[in-house]
Amino acid sequence: MILDRIWVSGPEARLLPAEGLHGPTVAVMAMMNFVMIIVAAAGLALANTAGVVVSGTESRYVVELPAASASDLPRAVVAARAVPGVRRVSAVPQSEMRKTLERWLGESANSPDLPIPAMATIEIAPGADPAAVSSAVHAQVPAARFSAQSAELKPLLRSLRALQWLALALVLLMVMATGAAMVLAARGALDTHRATVEIMHRIGATDRQVTRLFERKIATDAIAGALAATIAAAVVLIAVGGGVSAAAADLEWSTPFASPDLLILALVPVAAVIVAVAVAHATLLRALRANL
What we know:
It contains 11 helices and 4 strands; from the N terminus they run αααβαβαβαβααααα. It is α+β, with helices and mostly antiparallel strands and 292 residues long. It has 2 domains: 2-55 and 155-291, no CATH class; 67-142, no CATH class. A 4-stranded antiparallel beta sheet has the order 2-3-1-4. Helix 3 packs parallel to helix 10. Residues 246-253 have low confidence and may be disordered.
């Protein structure tokens, strides 16, 4: 247990007194934990975004007609509405199509000579057969193109998943870096108190007893750094998440983090402290057995 590594008896504590927090170790732990929490938060936010995209498009489809057949759109809409399981069919106004094209074509998008396809969006109920909708639309308008909105977003979803894996990889790398930093801290502590450790061995102290005393100091530094990082990361996430939550409410999206996400973020610094103490424990025991 971590607490067992921090709290030692009075006589044991006097053998290797704690002279206060060790600045470099605390700073390293704080920086590592801050980056891990922020990166983990970004990964969770991306996962939630991907979930919103999937849930928002999995039941939505698009009917598109070429400009030459745009006048047949009402027939396609009527055919789609007649299929059981279809919740809503909405024709996209030509004005909205031209407004969208203005982003790329500028004023040319309003030219009457520019052919504009006709489009309608279809929302079906869960369990409904999209193939039946497609068949009904094609029976009335053979030139219609029926497609799922989710198919158009597959490149975006692939990018989001890649970024999630990247965030996980970065967190794991930071955990490894934290372990490496604790190895250096443990070896540095042994070198600083080498004479004291030799005297303790001569009076009968075991390697595990000596290791426990050093772990108290390393665990205290690790907890102080993790606590500072958690507070700093919480301030950053609240500041950033507040604006995102407001925008999400306006757009009827979900908030960036759910309750399980907050629990995961809270466990990140706890896991980092456990890893740091475990690595320090193994390093100290190995060094004591090999050199002292």
